[in-house]
Amino acid sequence: MPVGAAAAALAGDGLAALSALRGEELLRRYDRSLLGVFGTPQRVLVRGSGATVWDADGKAYLDLLGGIAVNALGHAHPFLTSVVSSQLATLGHVSNFFASPTQIALAERLLTLANAPEGSHAFFANSGTEANEAAFKLARRNRGTAEAPRTRIIALEHSFHGRTAGALSMTWKPAYREPFEPLPGGVEWIPAGDVEALRAAVDETVQAVIVEPIQGEAGVLPLPEGYLQAVRDVTREAGALMIVDEVQTGIGRTGAWFASAGVIPDAMTLAKGLGGGVPIGAMLTFGPEVSALLSAGQHGTTFGGNPMATAAALATLHVIEHEGLLAHVRETGAWLAEELLTLDEVEGVHGRGLLVGIKVREGLAPLIVQAGLEAGFIVNATGPDTVRLAPPLIVTREQLSTFVQAFPALVASATATLAAQTTPKES
Ligand SMILES: *Cc1c(COP(=O)(O)O)cnc(C)c1O
């Protein structure tokens, strides 16, 4: 069937009627048909190209969030589109009863990029939470002995590892966890970056320590210099696994393939940017002993590592490498941080590469997000005082400078809205 005919058939299945509607009416339909866990979205997006997206009313936005650090190559990247289309037209899905060349190539490529030693392996899933769910089960398999059992998993305060039960049980925010308790137990949180607390917590009863090199959801909070190495040393000494959650920070986001580069963990989880927008997650296990902790039948997934998703990840890695995006991210990120810091409205900039937290006056961040949408910028607030940027890695200085130039006006608008909200109305 020609592409045009396929599109016409789909349109007949209800899409044509929807594409005639304006955003407001589409959002009413959304509320009626989609579960309310995300609230009502701000806009309905219909199309993208590079770092630009368009909404259902034809308004354009500079996408500085990139689907939350996912659209590494921007939208509708021609190489990614072509690789995924041709893979789907060849062999899209096979289940894990069968192997596929793209899956093997991706495993080998990621292990090489991560400097993984001989005997390391990859497990593919479909998302970040699933990658961490696998890591949670891996950690549980580090059981110790009958006389000296290991039962504890150490995570960091303000951590975010996902929303499925195992990953959620390692996530710090009580509001995410408490409605679903009892969750898998044995998880404890220690203050991020505190080496003394780390040493005090980790002994022969610990199965694993899990850390994000930069805590993305918490507000793009980096760990102090040397902390990851301290985690490596302390876990090695205690026989606990070191798990790095690079779901948000990995695959070039910080200007290196991995934000934890230089420290070899026992397991690493990846997802967001890995497939350039096609859902895929991964867990890498380092060395033969760790890799042997999960044996045949102990974990699995129907979709994980399918040819289409692994081809998408290979395409994403290929473009990052061949277009020199790691250097571009380092240079552009450093330049952006400097530009932002010249603004009076900015109280601080943290993060690395193109994972950027802009600190603003308490309460302003969510209102800056609103003002940004009005002005044609997509950004996000990780909390009341932090605006997060995680744009496509291909974003240009010219594009970013339009945002820097607009930022004071966004803050002014947010400040006015905040003042109107907090001034008691005269009766
Ligand atoms: C987003 C994120 C996750 C969860 O990934 P999903 O794909 O949303 O399940 C886990 N860990 C970190 C550090 C993340 O940023």
List the helices and strands and how they pair.
Blueprint: H1 3-19, H2 23-33, E1 45-49, E2 52-55, E3 60-63, H3 66-69, H4 78-88, H5 101-113, E4 121-125, H6 128-140, E5 152-156, H7 165-169, H8 174-177, E6 187-190, H9 195-201, E7 206-211, E8 214-215, E9 221-222, H10 227-238, E10 241-245, E11 267-270, E12 281-285, H11 288-291, H12 307-322, H13 325-341, E13 348-352, E14 355-359, H14 365-375, E15 377-378, E16 380-383, E17 386-389, H15 397-422
Could you please describe the fold and organization of this structure?
The protein has 427 residues and is α/β, with parallel strands linked by helices. The model has no long low-confidence stretch (mean pLDDT 96). The termini are far apart. The longest helix is centred in the last third of the chain and has 26 residues, at 397-422. The protein has two domains: 22-76 and 324-421, Alpha-Beta Complex (Aspartate Aminotransferase, domain 1), CATH 3.90.1150; 81-322, Aspartate Aminotransferase, domain 2. Helix 4 runs antiparallel to helix 12. The strands form four sheets. It has a seven-stranded mixed beta sheet, sandwiched between helices. A four-stranded mixed beta sheet has the order 1-2-3-15. The chain has a four-stranded antiparallel beta sheet with strand order 13-14-17-16. The protein has helices at 3-19, 23-33, 66-69, 78-88, 101-113, 128-140, 165-169, 174-177, 195-201, 227-238, 288-291, 307-322, 325-341, 365-375, 397-422; strands spanning 45-49, 52-55, 60-63, 121-125, 152-156, 187-190, 206-211, 214-215, 221-222, 241-245, 267-270, 281-285, 348-352, 355-359, 377-378, 380-383, 386-389. Residues 127-129, 132, 160-162, 212, 216-217, 245, 247-248, 271-272 line the site of pyridoxal-5'-phosphate (PLP).
